[in-house]
TrEMBL record:
Primary localization class, coarse: membrane
Full protein name: Anoctamin
Keywords: Membrane, Transmembrane, Transmembrane helix
Molecular function terms, GO-annotated: chloride channel activity
Species per Swiss-Prot/TrEMBL record: Cryptotermes secundus
TM spans (from-to): 31-50, 111-131, 151-172
InterPro entries linked to this entry: Anoctamin (IPR007632), Anoctamin_TM (IPR049452)
């Protein structure tokens, strides 16, 4: 088979892809069809049962028309300087003009699109990294690395992609909160809906762009071996990023597993371990400043040591 890179890479034997073919068969076999059918039915059933449970709770708590009667947010009332008379209640209320909402929406939409472009650039960077590392490994002469060059580059590229994903996620969460405050929605429901939409758009692109590229686009730009135009720039080198002869599914599984496992580990640390460590340290500092150590804590003292969940505490759930 053709070399993986120019000049330093040797021709590869087809039997070197046997391991990838065996890994691929673990996830791509006749049982996968039945699993996919089961998952589609399970997801639909779960969603419909969730809607039913939600309707039951809304009925029991008498919250059918709560959004129609929702009061404006205090932040909205204090920041808006224009007023109008409500045609229904005939009361004077704060009002955000259409032109003001339009330029706020344009500004926030531009910021969201810019962050999506940043994510695309990060994915492009990992692709160029994967191509360059193969060349470096084969140029080093290390036989063990040369033998496992494809697996090594796939794993390291996935780890780098995971690190970039988590950094951009933390950065964008603060940016999305700032953009939603800039929009200044009238009610708390509108505020949460706007914030949810921004987070969803970015998270979808951030977590799935690399997976979508590997699954549907990698290797589709390849024309023929020795294509000179593919060496003109770093961007056109995407054309020489091709799948293993056994297919891209093995690399897709590596990418998906590293992202899923790494994300769960980090989130569990941030949601469970970090709060416990913070509360333990806060309690320890409080006891060090307490003169009478035999006195029991009052309820307000125990609550004071807890962390503030914020107004969007349940958003992640």
């Amino acid at each position: 088979m053709c070399p993986l890179c120019d000049k330093v890479c040797d021709y590869q034997k087809l039997n070197s892809s046997c391991v990838f073919a065996e890994i691929t068969y673990l996830f791509d076999n006749p049982a996968t069809v039945f699993f996919a059918i089961f998952m589609s039915f399970w997801a639909t059933t779960f969603l419909e049962l969730w809607k039913r449970q939600q309707a039951v709770i809304v009925w029991e708590w008498d919250l059918q028309n709560v959004e129609e009667d929702e009061e404006p947010r205090p932040e909205f009332e204090t920041s808006v300087k224009t007023f109008r008379t409500n045609p229904v209640t005939m009361e004077r209320e704060p009002y955000l003009p259409t032109w003001s909402r339009a330029w706020r929406f344009l500004a926030t939409s531009s910021a969201v699109m810019f962050m999506v472009v940043v994510v695309m650039g990060a994915v492009l960077g990992t692709i160029i990294y994967r191509i360059s590392v193969v060349t470096v490994i084969y140029g080093s002469g290390e036989q063990f690395l040369k033998k496992h060059a494809k697996i090594f580059t796939s794993i390291t590229a996935a780890v780098i992609n995971l690190v970039i994903i988590m950094i951009l996620t933390k950065l964008y969460q603060r940016l999305a909160l700032w953009l939603t405050n800039l929009e200044n929605p009238r009610t708390q429901t509108e505020y949460e809906d706007s914030y949810t939409f921004k987070i969803f758009v970015f998270q979808f692109v951030n977590f799935y762009s690399s997976l979508i590229y590997i699954a549907f686009f990698k290797g589709r730009f390849f024309v023929h071996p020795g294509d000179a135009s593919a060496r003109n720039s770093a961007f056109t080198r995407l054309k020489i990023d091709v799948c293993d002869p056994a297919g891209c599914l093995s690399e897709l599984c590596i990418q998906l597993s590293i992202i899923m496992v790494g994300k769960q580990l980090l989130n569990n640390f941030l949601e469970i371990l970090y709060p416990k460590m913070y509360n333990w340290w806060s309690k320890r500092m409080h006891r060090s400043n307490t003169k009478n150590l035999e006195r029991k804590y009052t309820r307000w003292e125990e609550d004071f040591q807890l962390q503030d969940p914020g107004r969007l505490a349940l958003f992640e759930e």
